[in-house]
């Protein structure tokens, strides 16, 4: 997932997917002015911008395409899992872990990615310390038995 992005807000509490609504939103909200053909409807403009700028469905803009191994996504999945006990969160965590491993693994460690929207994202030759201190902690904790990290005893601080 990119570091900084905007999403299309849900229209109601059901948040049913509507591709034309997404494309119209992208077309209206884009700040891009170069290269867009003239005379396009908002939906057509959105389709053009989404394709040209590699904006995935649901996103309206990507302001920072890097992934620097941050913990926030897996931290949220960990909290959801520990609150509900639902295995689907462990399954999501495993998919996240394998994707991160597949795209960030180098010969000696894991590396940030400069552009997650690239067809073949390349590594960035840097690894932030929170990868080891936080991100991997949550990956470990979500698969460990709950008593290994009893949240009634331990508080996980983000410093």
**Number of discrete helical segments:** 5
> What is the multimeric organization of the chains shown?
single chain
Sheet with the most strands: spatial strand order: 1-2
The percent range for helix content is: 40-55%
Distance between the termini: 22 Å
**Would you count the extended β strands for me?**
2
Shape, principal axes of CA atoms: globular
Largest sheet: 2 strands, antiparallel
Please characterize this protein's 3D structure.
By secondary structure, this protein is mainly alpha-helical. The chain is built from 5 helices and 2 strands, in the order βααβααα. α1 packs across α2 and α3 packs antiparallel against α4. It is globular and about 60 Å long.
List the helices and strands and how they pair.
Layout: E1 4-7, H1 19-29, H2 42-52, E2 59-64, H3 72-84, H4 87-104, H5 129-143
Antiparallel strand pairs: 1-2
Summary, kept brief:
The chain is mainly alpha-helical and 159 residues long.
Q: Which descriptors would you attach to this protein?
A:
mainly alpha; globular; 5 helices; 6% strand; two-stranded antiparallel sheet; 2 strands; 159 residues
